[in-house]
Design a protein that fits this description.
about 200 residues, alpha+beta, Umud Fragment, subunit A, 3 helices, elongated
Amino acid sequence: SDPHNQETTDTNRSGFVWELIRTGLLVLLIVLPVRIFIAQPFVVSGASMEPTLSSGDYLIIDQLSYRFEKPQRHDVAVFRYPNNPSKFYIKRIIGLPGETIEISDGDITIINENNPDGFAVTEPYLAAGSTFSDDFSVTLDEDEYFVLGDNRDSSADSRTWGALPKRFLVGHAFLQLLPVSEAAFSPGDVSTARGP
């Protein structure tokens, strides 16, 4: 056996291992910050967002936008549950900071600075015949949001546990990957809602 050949093989092997380690570190340096600061995977659990999202749907959450832009009405948002911040919920933003939200016979009216007499919230994403009879009224502070599940009869939301403080918002649904047949950018967007 040629000792020179053995040395070349060992050098090639250590070069390969070093290259593998460098590649792994490079991937971590790129993927980790993206995962921590920009995008987060989220799997829908439960029926509270049907028909827009179903249990098991796999989403990518944009964690960056809300750091630079204000959340908008109708955004599908992921947040930490205020009563147990280790849990993540997904709901739709209905009321914005400073607004008064009135619910009567299932109809939602928003009263704000621009609409002192209020306006009815149009919700094309709700299932046909979707009704809920809770009567409710709340005025939000300057850092609070009012969130509801699209499946109003099966959702624990701001009607149950109160307004959502902004500090608990994680991000909004940016991309739906699974099921593949319903893959979409901005799932739940009013213009692309899956409802009837």
